[in-house]
Amino acid sequence: MVQSRVFAVARAGILAGLAAGFAMGLFHFVVTEPIINRAIAIEEAAAASSGHDEVALVSRVVQEGMLVFGSVIYGAAAGMLFAVVFSLVGQRLPVRPEARAVALAAILWLSSGLVPFLKYPANPPGVGDPATMEYREAIQFGFIGVSLFLAALAALVYWRLGRLRPGVLRAKRSLIAVSLYLAMAVVLLAVSPANPDEVTAPAGLVWDFRIRSLFGQVLFWGVLGFASAWLLKRSRPAVPEAVR
User: Fold this and answer.
1) How far is the CA of 229 from the CAs of 7, 24, 100, 102, 111, in angstroms?
2) Residue 119 neighbours by CB distance under 10 Å
3) For the residues 22-46, what does the mean pLDDT come to?
4) Do residues 223 and 23 touch, judged by C-beta distance below 8 A?
5) CA torsion angle for 110, 114, 115, 121 (degrees, to 10)?
6) Which of 1, 47, 49, 105 has the greatest count of CB atoms below 10 A from its CB?
7) Angle ∠(94,102,232) on CA atoms, nearest 5
8) Where do the structural domains in the chain lie, given as residue ranges?
9) Which sign, positive or negative, has the C-alpha torsion 186, 190, 193, 196?
10) Which among 239, 105, 107, 132 has a CA at the least distance from the CA of 196?
């Protein structure tokens, strides 16, 4: 029974991840690629005027063709990790069983997507000094890691309160945990180093790209959560009417 349940969760996570990756990749291919093309055109024009024009190692046609495929692969990997986390903590989430996958996806989006976006929003190609790329990636991934750790710490506080004070309602414990995470996130936002590069691209172009990137995250985690919930519901054995 336990093995079949683990298999069902893993299957749901991977299939939902594939669907989420495809949806995100298709969205960016249709909606975000025109913004990227505009940014690349500006970058190439600036490079040509300065005499430093370079030939791209991978053509735009290949990059666009790989966008959806790469997103699907990313979705499958993220779905597997989602299934692992759900197997560990899903039963303890303070929501109805059919909403647990959606709740977990929302938590992961908040801690790994929205809060990091507030400090390090995505930028289109050509924004940022190539010499600082490794540093920028390090502080961004470090921020995401710390944010996820703080979310896990808030969840631990929620569960410990349930053990120490069983009479405390789930709603109160949830409010305490969420408030704790948000307070720690505010501190993290304040103390984390700023992006070292000045954004010189047109503000409208930059924010068009950022909003589309953020919506792509919302789409990915939304599809992952709801698709996982639907697949998990379908995997549960039907209960005979006499038993109900």
Assistant:
1) 15, 18, 7, 7, 20
2) 19
3) 86
4) yes
5) 160
6) 105
7) 100
8) 2-235
9) positive
10) 132
61-92: per-residue pLDDT in tens? 677 778 899 999 999 999 999 999 999 988 88
Q: How confident is the model at residue 102 (pLDDT cuts 50, 70, 90)?
A: very high
Looking at the predicted structure, is the pLDDT value of residue 58 above 70?
Answer: no
For 137, the token pair is 């990636």
Residue 200: pLDDT band with limits 50, 70, 90: confident
Indicate the length of the chain as a whole number: 244
Position 110: which residue type? Answer: L
CB 230 within 8 A of CB 33: no
pLDDT of 57 over the 60 cut? no
Q: Nearest CA to 140 among 105, 181, 112?
A: 112
Q: Indicate if the pLDDT at residue 237 is higher than 70.
A: no
